[in-house]
Amino acid sequence: MLDIAAQLLAVGLLWGVTNPFIRLGSQGIESVGDTGSKWRNFVQEARTIGSRWRYWIPFGLNQCGSALYVWTLQRASITVAVPVANSLSFAFTAITGYALGEKLPGRSKLNV
């Protein structure tokens, strides 16, 4: 049971810590010029995001968290694993984002 808790903590950590870095690595993708063709726009966006290591490294770590999550679900109860992993992910995202200079979510975002 303790190993499942540690795995869910690791999943929440991998998901949560990487989210702000993925967001930082993908900044500017929306400013890729409109070429007049959906296909050319797609290729331009793929080239832009494909060349950013600051996007791909956190994305790869995030996917490692997803693989660990699927592996953990084989032995954990889904009614426990889903809320634990998601709530830890949210908490680690907020903490990491704040450490990177982002604002903490306000009451309007938390629906309090």
UniProtKB/TrEMBL annotation:
PANTHER family the UniProt entry points to: TRANSMEMBRANE PROTEIN 234
Record's protein name: Uncharacterized protein, isoform B
InterPro entries: TMEM234
GO cellular component: membrane
Subcellular location: Membrane
Membrane topology: Multi-pass membrane protein
Keyword rRNA-binding: no
Pfam families (alphabetical): TMEM234 (PF10639)
UniProt signal peptide: 1-16
Name of the gene this protein is made from: Dmel\CG12929
Phylogenetic classification of the source organism: Eukaryota, Metazoa, Ecdysozoa, Arthropoda, Hexapoda
Keyword Transmembrane helix: yes
